[in-house]
Automatic annotation (TrEMBL):
GO terms for biological process: seryl-tRNA aminoacylation. The lineage of its organism: Bacteria, Pseudomonadati, Planctomycetota, Planctomycetia, Pirellulales. This is Serine--tRNA ligase. It is an enzyme of class 6 (ligase). It comes from Aeoliella straminimaris. L-serine binds at residues 229, 260, 283, 384. Its EC number is 6.1.1.11. Coiled coil: none annotated.
Amino acid sequence: MLDPRFILENVELVQENCDIRGVKADVARYAQLETERRTLQQEVEELSRQANQVSKSIGKAKDDAEREARKEEGRMLREQKDAKQAEIDRIVAEAGAIYSHIPNLTHPESPRGGEEDSREIRRGAVEVRPLRFPIQDHVELGEQHKLIDLEGGARIAGHGFYFLQNEAVLLELALQQFAVEYLMKEGFVPMITPDLARGDIVQGVGFVPRGPETQIYSIENFDLNLVATAEITLGGLYAGQVLEEEQLPIKLVGISHCYRTEAGAAGRASRGLYRVHQFTKIEMFAFTAPEQSEDMHNYFLDLECGLFDELGLPYKVIDIATGDLGGPAYRKFDLEAWMPGRGNGGEYGEVTSTSNCTDYQARRLDVRYKKKGEKGTHFVHTLNGTAIAVSRAMIAILENCQQPDGSIIVPEVLRKWVGKDRIGATDTDEE
């Protein structure tokens, strides 16, 4: 959320920001309601003061008639106060509904417009490799080498769930080890996070925990939800806490399962492992001082690029346009890897994203820091970034590294964990 004072002092700017992000929020109405609330609050406090004075004076009444008159005066004052308080409660509810939908401010360099206006800003070190043979997508390769059992997953839990088998299991574990090892060398603290979080934490990070718009699985009869990303648990780690400036920046790398309803997702581009209800993700998260967050955001992007360069996979980086930003993001970069089996003749597909959320999440979660020698506190900035979303990284590996005979070359950086150079190779091929 934005600072309410900032909204009231910059109504036109905040409304313009909502408009370029495609968010329907009546900022002027919010400002009007807040002005009314403040006026009414002063009136409530004055009526309460008067009622207290009258109450104290009852014992000093000269006779029963005066005593009863003062009691009646006090009763009327309390009724007026209660009526105004009820009006305040109504205003707070209406203003709160508007306030909760106001998105973060937007980086001045973010492209303006919808999804089609997002801008490519970088290419990976590895170019797209032309495959001069019949290309198989990851589903076909998974069936050929008994790596992915989509039908078994559907029988157990429904469409969008799956079993990984054989070398796919080793690939999943290798990708986790690779990403965590890479980031620990950069000073990240590794964490295995809970798979569940309370509704206030989910909402504080910026996800909708329940209701028709949610992509979150909720646990019936409990205020608990399966997390869609470790951003939720890592972001909530210091909720309600005050950090010391010397602790910042705090860099965490979380390992978690992710659960998403993916309502409405369908089509060939979403088939197989691309859009599933459960997957493993290695997530970067940082708490920083405000002046550190932009550099940290660019650093997160460099780390994501470094990981995929090490894997030898071609990709492009997209600066996401304003109309496609989520509410908490001030700026967001997506990394899209080339997937030869996607679409007709290959397409890029999103594999990571990184967002600078400035103090938007910190205000909702009440995460602050204090400077040495100062009495007050300040909100931290929060940033998140996907290191590896295993299911999508696996798609890119299987499809880009396939060979004319259908075998799959294992990226060199993963071989020490997978234990082989090639999937589907004969003993002679390995030699």
